[in-house]
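Entry 14. Ran structure prediction on the chain below.
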Amino acid sequence: MSAAPPIARWPAAPLQGKVVLVTGGANGIGRGIAQAVLGAGGRVLIGDLDTEAGQACLDEWQRGDDAAFQRMDIADEGSVRDFIAVAQQRFGRIDGLVNNAGIAGPHGTTLENMEWDEWQRRLSSLHGAFLCCKHALPALTASGAGAVINIASTRAWQSEAHSEAYAAAKGGLVAFTHALAISAGPAVRVNSISPGWIGTSAWQAPSRRYAPDYSPSDHAQHPVGRVGQPEDIGALAVYLLSSLSGFSTGQDFIVDGGMTRKMIYTE
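Output, structure tokens:
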């Protein structure tokens, strides 16, 4: 080689021209990711059971044809199939899929008292990721640079009591991620994000929003000095959906302000 590679320019809008689907995209982390996609130049279809929050997103974003909402249930294959079809009809392509929807609360009935139906319902984030990937993979493959992000949790790696179903779902998403990365590559990259404590009270439907009231000790549990925000997850999602992360697949990225690395003792 006669010369070293030149300094590459970083794209100002890394998702320009890309179409991204975000399940559970009307509230919380999902809304944070959807807004990040729009901010990075992409177009987004959010799917959610919460029609109030979904319509509020469109009203507040005011992004015209760049954003759309479709009511969908990730536990219903017909609903998922319709969601994917709407994306293709409206935008003509699918470049990214973020599997975020699922039950937010980690605590359920104690294991010895949990009914089979509740166990299955609490695994909905894993089941939904399967259904969404099943129906979106052909379009993602056709895009030439498809990317999937599964939203797992640090609870895939550490737990509190009575959270077995939630931990199983999130741990399953991490394993599903690396397995699908092998099957779908190289046409489609698949990664997961494991958020820690992310404050979402201001990222709900208008009727449910409230200002968070964190104590100094809440923030101090995090080596970065604060509780996380949906923007923190959105920023990483943009990277993983874009060509900037073209050499990353099958990985789980922990975004928790360092909380899982900090040893906490009771005095």
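The domain at 19-261 is CATH 3.40.50.720 (Rossmann fold). Will compare against last week's run tomorrow.
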